[in-house]
Amino acid sequence: MTAPSVPNMVRRIMSSFITTYDDVVRPEWIDSNGHMNLAYYVVVFDLATDKFYEDIGFGTTYRAATGNSSFVAETHTVYEREVHVGDRLQIRTWLLGADNKRVHYFHEMFHADSGERSAVQELMALHIDMEVRKVAPFSTALEASLAALVARYAPAELPKGAGRRIAMPTRR
Predict the structure, then answer these.
(1) How large a percentage of the chain has pLDDT more than 90?
(2) DSSP reduced 3-state for 64
(3) Global pTM value
(4) I need a surface site. Which of 16, 94, 126, 131 has the fewest CB within 10 A?
(5) Taking 60 as the threshold, does the pLDDT of residue 11 lie above it?
């Protein structure tokens, strides 16, 4: 994929994002503080996840054909800048890793006009056999496809904000 014209403020440490999703902040997403409510950042990231899954062959077609899906087991969202009604958003998704049962990925939300990063979300998803609703290994073909995508797209260093944990600052 070629990079869009909006500069990525942390591009220097990345290889290549795997997919993008675009949206616009809707009036119903605005809270009493006059900016997008935190829940809707998660909604936008979830819509970006749906696009990402389709792009890597792990979306609705896959689910219908195999009876398998994914459940997100863990997320971490960081809010960096406000976005407001009418703001155009671009979400770039980075594939950080995968094994025989998990996919680790990272979304960056940018204000499409200014290029400023507004939020990030890191996720770990599990492959689920929907008949028994338990974690199950990927098929050999999907595992190989994901491994090839990881080899091609995984960044040499984690994106700024990935791998964080919630903790109080240490006192000096």
Answers:
(1) 77
(2) helix
(3) 0.86
(4) 131
(5) no
Half-sphere CA count of 56, side-chain side, radius 13 A: 30
Looking at this protein, which amino acid is placed at residue 112? Answer: A
Tell me the backbone φ, ψ of residue 119, rounded to 5 degrees.
-165, 160
CA distance 48 to 152: 20
What pLDDT, on a 0 to 100 scale, did the predictor assign at position 15?
A: 61
- How many CB atoms neighbour CB 16 within 10 A? 15
Amino acid present at 91: I
Integer CA distances (angstroms), 75 to 4, 9, 82, 112, 147, in order = 26, 22, 20, 24, 22
pLDDT at 118 over 80: yes
The Cα–Cα gap between 1 and 137 comes to 29
- What the chain holds in terms of domains, given with CATH numbers, is 13-153 (3.10.129.10)
> Among 94, 110, 112, which residue's Cα sits nearest to residue 158?
94
